[in-house]
Amino acid sequence: MLNFFESAENRLKIILFMAFTILCILIAVLSDYNFATGSGNLTMILFVIAQAYLPARRLRIFFMLKDDAFFGIFLRVHCWLNTLAFVWSCVHCYATHWHNTYLWIALGLMGWLTFGGMILRFRYPPAIGKGLYFLHTQTIVFVIMCLCLLKGHYVF
């Protein structure tokens, strides 16, 4: 039986993940005057960092760069940070006391994009993956989610 903790690389990943988790909790608790706002700030930070993959990918295609190793790691970081951002957005949603339809739509779209991306990450059969890739990479879903987030938080 394969033991996950035998590899030094896996132990390092676990230690880094635990340190990152503790850092996230500290940011959420200490960053602002209450946990709800702090968790929202953390969600925003994770979400913005995770979305840096999208313009980097466009620039890679535009300039025809071939650094596959870097972008492979960047894609994994994109997947896991988006997953963490979604988890923290659920925590933020639970911790705040004001809700509206726009925020529920944004949370649903964020969940769809996150779970669709994670399913793509674990390489489902091509028949499923091709359709899911098409639905996951639609820019309009991302734009609608961002607009719902802004409208739901009364930015405009």
Helix-strand layout with pairing:
Blueprint: H1 8-30, H2 35-50, H3 53-63, H4 68-95, H5 101-121, H6 126-136, H7 139-152
Helix pairs in contact: 1-2, 2-4, 4-5, 5-6, 5-7
Structural class: mainly alpha
Largest sheet: none
Radius of gyration: 17 Å
Succession of helices and strands: HHHHHHH
Tell me, what's the shape? Answer: globular
List the total number of helices: 7
Strand content: under 5%
Short description:
The chain has seven helices and no strands. The chain has one domain (8-152).
Question: How would you characterize this protein structure?
Answer:
The protein is mainly α. The protein has one domain. It is built from 7 helices and no strands. The protein has helices at residues 8-30, 35-50, 53-63, 68-95, 101-121, 126-136, 139-152. Helix 2 (35-50) runs antiparallel to helix 4 (68-95), helix 4 (68-95) runs antiparallel to helix 5 and helix 5 (101-121) runs antiparallel to helix 7. The model has no long low-confidence stretch (mean pLDDT 85).
